[in-house]
Design brief:
Elements: H1 2-14, E1 27-32, E2 61-65, E3 68-73, H2 75-83, E4 87-93, H3 97-106, H4 119-132, E5 137-144, E6 151-157, E7 169-174, H5 182-197, H6 202-210, E8 212-216, H7 221-228, H8 287-298, E9 303-308, E10 313-316, E11 319-320, E12 323-324, H9 328-340, E13 352-355, H10 362-370, E14 373-378, H11 391-407, E15 413-420, E16 430-432, E17 444-445, E18 452-456, E19 460-467, E20 474-481, E21 486-493
Parallel strand pairs: 7-8, 7-9, 9-14, 10-13, 15-21
Antiparallel strand pairs: 1-3, 1-4, 2-3, 5-6, 6-8, 10-14, 11-12, 15-18, 16-17, 16-19, 19-20
Helix pairs in contact: 4-5, 5-11, 9-11
């Protein structure tokens, strides 16, 4: 019995009996001209090359940008690199893991480059633009953060932004994950472009005259602050005090905001609080998720993009049990077109396209529950916080992607308007296309303010069923959707006799 106890104690403190403790990786090593086969991205268990970048771990490879690798290594591993002929050098030696990570990700100053904006700077710049162009930009608070109750802002842009308009709306959001800061930079640049271009750039003018564009630069405000303040470049989740000890900002605490939506919630992320993809204790447990839900409940969106990093790929909904999404005939071509307009960092190609899974992330929730055609754009490659020299090119490429994306907000599709046949007032009602939709998605509704449902469709004949409690169901067969633009469909629901 005593032997068993001793063995158990040894396992707890030192791993398997007789095993030597693993030597610490106290060296930050830069390796140049690494062959492509050795730096392939790590996507699945056991995949990737010798120096592949794992988005979820910071115990070894920190970044793989172009053909340069920054990795943590032991002295033995560094010696092996030199023996194998790699062009490797020690950048820093330290017994403090976080210091090495800061040096590897932030650079020599151990702080983020000023090219990356803090949330306060983003909000201040947005305020300056709104004051200069009051008719174009309206700010609204959609919620507050889980831990520190910081405001989460959305910005509505149109030619008359003070009030919602009866027109298609498009959403762009960034930084569900704290360290994926490029989304905030792209969205701020888009705001600058829209404000400066209205009345000068015909394309921008047309967008703001015919659409509503909503921007949420930072969803995960608390986590983003940990990154941009220089405290910890590894941070991914929000800053919830999960264990309730009153101490925040201790890695890896927090909840993965992009695993907290209520579409197949249990299929996404992890139930382990220490896991990088911890999904929280229940769907919408996090105030950041509830803020996004509030925005989507208040404004019906036609299209949306959520910016993440990295891998240079566009994800779209979805493949589920081997089957595509009900609207795949429309969604996939949009994803393909968007990706084709996004140049890769090396300039040699464009982004890849891939269907995602139907789990607890924003894009299956937005599509599955709310009928929004949402896409995740994974910007950049080989790091979340990229070198400052890469940032302008990534922003420029993604603004070109926005140009292509917004063309799809012009149709083809149906512009359904539903009213009470007696009073003429607009109605929120279920708009069902039985030839397309199935039980994997929630029924779509028109908005209560205007009675509108904008629905992108393939040209041709479609059947439409409109229903609302207290009214007679309307069935409209063989509605012909034109090859371009919006085909109007007026539906007047008759109240049921009582």
């Amino acid at each position: 019995m005593l032997r068993i106890v001793i063995i158990g104690l040894l396992l707890l403190v030192g791993g398997p009996v007789g095993a030597a403790p693993e030597p610490p990786r106290n060296l930050l090593v830069e390796i140049r001209h690494v062959p492509a086969a050795m730096r392939t991205p790590k996507i699945g268990e056991g995949s990737g090359g010798r120096f592949s970048f794992d988005s979820y771990k910071r115990d070894r490879v920190l970044s793989v940008v172009r053909d340069t690798v920054l990795t943590l290594a032991t002295k033995e591993e560094f010696a092996a690199m030199l023996r194998d002929g790699f062009e490797a050098k020690v950048v820093m030696e330290s017994a403090d893991h976080l210091t090495l990570v800061k040096r590897g990700i932030y650079g020599p100053t151990l702080r983020p480059d000023p090219i990356f904006h803090s949330y306060a700077q983003i909000v201040e710049r947005a305020g300056q633009l709104a004051r200069a162009h009051p008719q174009l930009i309206a700010r609204m608070q959609i919620g507050e953060t889980t831990q520190f109750r910081r405001p989460i802002y959305a910005f509505r842009l149109s030619n008359d932004a003070a009030r919602p308009k009866e027109r298609p709306a498009v959403l762009f959001d960034g930084v569900h994950h704290a360290d994926e800061v490029m989304g905030a930079e792209i969205i701020l640049a888009l705001m600058e472009k829209l404000a400066a271009g209205y009345g000068r750039d015909p394309e921008v003018t047309a967008w703001l005259d015919t659409l509503e564009i909503y921007l949420v630069p930072v969803v995960n405000v608390d986590g983003h602050d940990i990154i941009t303040s220089g405290r910890d470049p590894r941070w991914r989740k929000n800053v919830r005090d999960v264990n309730g000890d009153g101490v925040t900002g201790v890695y890896p605490e927090g909840v993965d905001v992009n695993r907290g939506y209520d579409f197949n919630w249990a299929m996404g992320g992890s139930g382990n609080p220490d896991d990088p993809s911890y999904r929280g204790s229940f769907p919408f447990s996090e105030a950041e998720n509830r803020a996004m839900r509030r925005l989507v409940d208040e404004r019906q969106f036609l299209l949306s993009i959520s910016y993440h990093s990295q891998f240079e790929v566009v994800f779209y909904p979805w493949v589920w049990n081997g089957m595509p999404a009900p609207d795949d005939a429309v969604i996939r071509p949009i994803a393909t077109d968007l990706a084709a307009h996004l140049r890769t960092m090396d300039g040699l190609g464009t982004y890849a396209v891939s269907p995602g899974g139907p789990s607890s992330q924003s894009y299956p929730w937005l599509y599955g529950r709310r009928g929004v055609f949402d896409f995740i754009v994974e910007t950049g490659k080989g790091a979340h916080i990229l070198p400052a020299t890469e940032v302008p090119g990534i922003i420029a490429a993604n603004l070109e992607g926005v140009r292509a994306f917004l063309k799809h907000a012009r149709g083809p599709g149906l512009a359904v308007r539903i009213t009470d046949a007696v009073t003429g007032r607009p109605l929120a009602a279920e708009v069902w296309l039985p030839q397309i939709e199935n039980e994997t998605v929630s029924r779509r509704e028109s908005d209560a303010r205007f009675g509108r449902r904008w629905r992108l469709l393939t040209p041709g004949k479609h059947n439409v069923i409109v229903s609302r409690e207290g009214y007679r169901t309307a069935v409209v067969n063989d509605v012909v959707v034109a090859g371009s633009g919006w085909t109007p469909l007026e539906v007047r629901l008759e109240p049921e006799k009582r």
